[in-house]
UniProtKB/TrEMBL annotation:
<comment type="similarity">
    <text>Belongs to the HMG-CoA lyase family.</text>
</comment>
<keyword id="KW-0456">Lyase</keyword>
<dbReference type="Pfam" id="PF00682">
    <property type="entry name" value="HMGL-like"/>
</dbReference>
<dbReference type="InterPro" id="IPR013785">
    <property type="entry name" value="Aldolase_TIM"/>
</dbReference>
<dbReference type="InterPro" id="IPR000891">
    <property type="entry name" value="PYR_CT"/>
</dbReference>
<keyword id="KW-0479">Metal-binding</keyword>
<feature type="domain" description="Pyruvate carboxyltransferase">
    <location>
        <begin position="7"/>
        <end position="272"/>
    </location>
</feature>
<dbReference type="InterPro" id="IPR043594">
    <property type="entry name" value="HMGL"/>
</dbReference>
<dbReference type="GO" id="GO:0016829">
    <property type="term" value="F:lyase activity"/>
</dbReference>
<protein>
    <submittedName>
        <fullName>Hydroxymethylglutaryl-CoA lyase</fullName>
    </submittedName>
</protein>
Length: 299
């Protein structure tokens, strides 16, 4: 089996990583964290989210974050609805991420809409964003398992991905939201998606709830995926999905790929330095293997 020579890592720590944090991370520390991550070599990054501060208070400073660092090429922001999209565009965003679950129950509990209703609500926004030349990333939640419905039929995930691809999104980020997927499921679903949507840019997004994120990433690599979301320090979790703990730790993903001879363009030492900026301000220990090894060397 021939593996790729290069894989793109989309850093999601500043957004997906911090959104579930109990402690509010000061804006100046967020922007320092983001700046240090850019210096580590990332080409794409989700930096913040224009969501209601009532539901995600960690992101209440989205406009200030964008004012400080939003001009960097490759900057993306999450926008859950029309109000979020308008705020993001006002901030100067050139790339936005929208999200929708495959599971109807997941969508109903989070946005009070069925999956079909959610898609119909997104279609006019996708058209307007395309007409404005904005890059659109569609984040597909509960692509494998749902905290309410259980296992998701691969055909349902494929149908939603096809719908959004045909609507004109630039990229699909397909997520194992509660970290329950197995490598077999990862390989099977991504093989099907790559076969059915060969022209669509596609990323895999794995949570490490059951310590299978790296194995699932390897399985997705074997299925032809070369783009992966990851979060520095393994930060993260979804505030809207019970049981969704941290994301795949970027540093462990990069280390694994480096050892496999797959280039990422990421400087691991600089990445660890970036993590050290935000670590004092988060509520839990950052336990990724690489970062813990880095800290022991620095002692």
């Amino acid at each position: 089996m021939e593996l790729p020579h290069y894989a793109e890592i989309i850093e999601v720590g500043p957004r997906d990583g911090l959104q579930n944090e109990a402690n509010f991370v000061p804006t100046e520390k967020k922007t320092a964290f983001i700046d240090a991550l850019w210096k580590a070599g990332f080409k794409e990054m989700e930096v913040t989210s224009f969501v209601s501060p009532k539901w995600v208070p960690q992101m209440k400073d989205a406009a200030e974050v964008m004012k400080e660092i939003g001009g960097h090429s490759g900057t993306m922001v999450l926008t859950p609805n029309k109000r979020g999209i308008e705020a993001a565009l006002t901030s100067g965003a050139k790339a936005v991420a929208i999200f929708i679950g495959v599971s109807t129950t997941f969508n109903q509990k989070n946005i009070n809409k069925t999956t079909e209703e959610a898609v119909e609500g997104l279609l006019p926004h996708i058209k307007d964003l395309k007409d404005s030349g904005i890059y659109i990333r569609a984040c597909i939640s509960t692509a494998f398992h749902c905290p309410y419905e259980g296992e998701i039929a691969p055909a349902d995930t494929l149908a939603l991905c096809k719908r959004l691809a045909h609507a004109g999104v630039n990229e699909l980020s397909v997520a194992d939201t509660i970290g329950k997927a197995t490598p077999k499921e990862s390989y099977s679903l991504f093989s099907m998606l790559k076969k059915e949507l060969p022209e669509v840019l596609m990323a895999a997004h794995f949570h490490d709830t059951r310590k299978m994120a790296l194995a699932n990433i390897y399985a997705a690599l074997c299925a032809g995926v070369t783009r992966f979301d990851a979060s520095a320090g393994g930060l993260g979790g979804c505030p809207f999905a019970p049981g969704a703990s941290g994301n795949a730790a970027t540093e462990d993903v990069v280390y694994m790929l480096d050892r496999m001879g797959i280039e990422t363009g990421i400087d691991l030492n600089q990445l660890a330095q970036a993590i050290s900026i935000v670590e004092p301000h988060v509520s839990r220990e950052l336990s990724s293997w690489y970062y813990q090894s880095y800290k022991k060397k620095e002692e």
